[in-house]
Design brief:
Helices cover 45% and strands 10% of the residues. Bound molecules: 6-O-phosphono-beta-D-fructofuranose (F6P).
């Protein structure tokens, strides 16, 4: 279906005038007008409860936003994605992360071939290998069992596994140490390996393309460290496995392709945590927990695919994001998980959202005349409260927030969880309702402090409340954000599945590298700033001063 340009859609103009009507209405007023707002504007599906009542919306706003989704052709885009159409138009690829968690027997076709049996074959191979590592049956070159697993990858080949490993650490086999190396800065691999015994260490080189300079540099360094310590090139076969789509490059590196775990070009890097890229995670938590996580993903996929838009979690979250991004001029989204295990979630969501929707041209290649993906950031509560929440509460910027919390803790220790959750609830309340001048004065605050102690409130937030951080819950949560990003990309008429914006820096770095490495390199020939910086670096890099 062909869709008119976004700002020409009938609903767009209606949303603009509606925004002008309600922009000045405070959340205090909205709650006074609708006393049952807290339950009316809430949704529960696939084990996730979303309270979106503390948003600057009315029933009319939601109707219009849902209409916008319909006019944008969201329904047919969802169907196209789930049925394996090549919706990644610039790379001419299908986008089928949903196939990675499709149950056995479901059929999804790409170029006339059902891809689901292949997915399950890889999962079985991963499970067999994970079982061998976990039981100690897989022996290193000297006959010792593996105790340490180091994933080497970057971007989607790192952020997904490390985020999910941290999230599910409570379910991990504690006799295994898992580490993640991503940065090309040598300090990363040096620190990750310095206290490990190479004879007990397995490296998983994770790279979809197997050409990424950071990953290959780290993998070669790890290989040299291992071979030097074990005194034999043949050690590579017992201490290195690969996850990739590129068997030729894997073989060139010296890894037996029998020890390669494959995936497919229809899995985007940032959508790959539940593919073989999650091998380190599966080794850590075991195949059964990994399967449970896939079930959680699938549950959310089914909800997204089938639920009406007005009752659809990813659709509602996506539309609320569009509302603030495009009609209130908000530039950012804070994702604030109140769970220590979700310490890497925001970093993961940064790639998911910003690499997907950080685009300036539409699907046809025309420059867009509206704002696209937000800046995503955040850290787990309550740490942020003692750092940057000041700006959210009293600064001049509008920062919509997603709060994520769990009713049960994995570590019931005294009062900790109730204290954590008291803060969780208090923050959304304070953000929404603030504290008026009258309240401040009623507290007996001296005059000179009054303006400083007023909280304007009216800051919007979503609250996602789940029962417990289980593997299923993690799967549901990640799938929720994956689909939310897709909803927004659809509304903005952009391709959420390519990432050409990362290319230029890579090419220029490739050009500069020999200028730094070769002692006799000619003077740099860039702009005057880059030249001066390179000259200075060359002069000082030896450390002699
Ligand atoms: O940053 C660009 C990117 O292509 C990401 O999209 C991807 O997740 C990452 O690099 C790593 O790529 P690969 O898995 O091919 O090494």
């Amino acid at each position: 279906m062909s869709v008119p340009k976004l700002r020409q859609l009938a609903t767009w103009g209606r949303l603009e005038s509606h925004q002008r009507e309600i922009a000045a209405i405070h959340l205090r007023q909205l709650f006074a007008d609708e006393p049952d707002r807290g339950t009316r504007y809430s949704l529960e599906a696939a084990g996730v409860y979303l309270d979106y009542s503390k948003n600057r919306v009315t029933a009319k706003t939601l109707d219009l936003l849902v209409q916008l989704a319909e006019e944008s052709g969201l329904r047919s885009r969802i169907d196209a994605m789930f049925s394996g159409e090549k919706i990644n138009v610039t790379e001419r690829r299908a986008v089928l992360h949903v196939a990675l968690r499709a149950p056995r027997g479901q059929q999804i076709f790409v170029d006339g071939k059902d891809v689901v049996p292949g997915v399950h074959a890889v999962l079985e191979k991963m499970a067999a290998f994970a079982g061998q590592i976990r039981s100690g049956a897989w022996k290193g070159h000297t006959g010792k069992p593996i105790k340490n697993v180091v994933n080497i990858g970057i971007g989607g080949s790192d952020l997904g596994p490390v985020m999910a490993y941290e999230a599910l650490r409570d379910y991990s086999q504690r006799s295994l140490t898992c580490r993640f190396v991503s940065n090309v800065d040598g300090s990363d691999v040096a620190e990750a390996t310095r206290d490990l015994d190479p004879a007990e260490t397995l490296f998983i080189v994770s790279s979809k393309t197997f050409t990424t300079i950071e990953t290959l540099t780290n993998a070669h360094t790890a290989r040299a460290w291992c071979v030097q310590a074990l005194g034999d090139e043949r050690a590579v076969a017992r201490h290195f496995v690969a996850v990739s789509t590129n068997a030729a490059e894997v073989a060139k590196f010296g890894i037996d392709t029998a020890n390669m775990f494959g995936f497919w070009d229809w899995v985007g890097g940032r959508y790959s945590v539940d593919s073989a890229i999650g091998l380190s995670l599966m080794i850590a938590v075991g195949p059964e927990n990994f399967r449970q996580m896939l079930n959680g993903f699938h549950e959310m996929d089914e909800h997204f695919r089938t639920a009406p838009f007005a009752r659809n979690l990813p659709v509602i979250l996506g539309l609320l994001g569009v509302w603030y991004n495009n009609f209130f001029g908000a530039e950012t989204l804070a994702v604030l998980p109140y769970d220590h295990y979700l310490g890497r979630l925001s970093a993961y969501l940064q790639q998911l959202d910003m690499e997907s929707n950080g685009k300036q041209v539409d699907l046809a290649g025309n420059r867009v005349d509206y704002s696209t993906g937000p800046i995503v950031w955040g850290t787990p509560g309550t740490n942020g409260q003692h750092a940057y929440y000041q700006l959210i509460h009293q600064g001049t910027k509008l920062i919509p927030c997603d709060f994520i919390g769990f009713c049960q803790t994995l570590n019931p220790l005294g009062r900790h969880h109730d204290l954590l959750m008291a803060n969780f609830f208090a923050q959304t309340e304070a953000l929404a309702f603030g504290k008026t001048e009258a309240d401040v004065r009623a507290d007996g605050v001296p005059d000179f402090q009054v303006p400083h102690r007023i909280f304007a409130g009216n800051h919007p937030s979503n609250t996602l409340l789940l029962e417990r951080l289980t593997p299923e819950a993690l799967g549901r949560l990640v799938a929720l954000y994956e689909h939310k990003v897709f909803v927004q990309g659809t509304i903005w008429q952009i391709n959420s599945f390519d990432q050409w914006g990362v290319e230029l820096g890579k090419v220029l770095a490739g050009r500069i590298t020999p200028e730094l490495e070769s002692p006799g390199a000619p003077p740099p020939a860039h702009d005057s700033s880059t030249n001066a910086l390179i000259r200075r670096y060359r002069r000082l890099k030896g450390g002699a001063g």
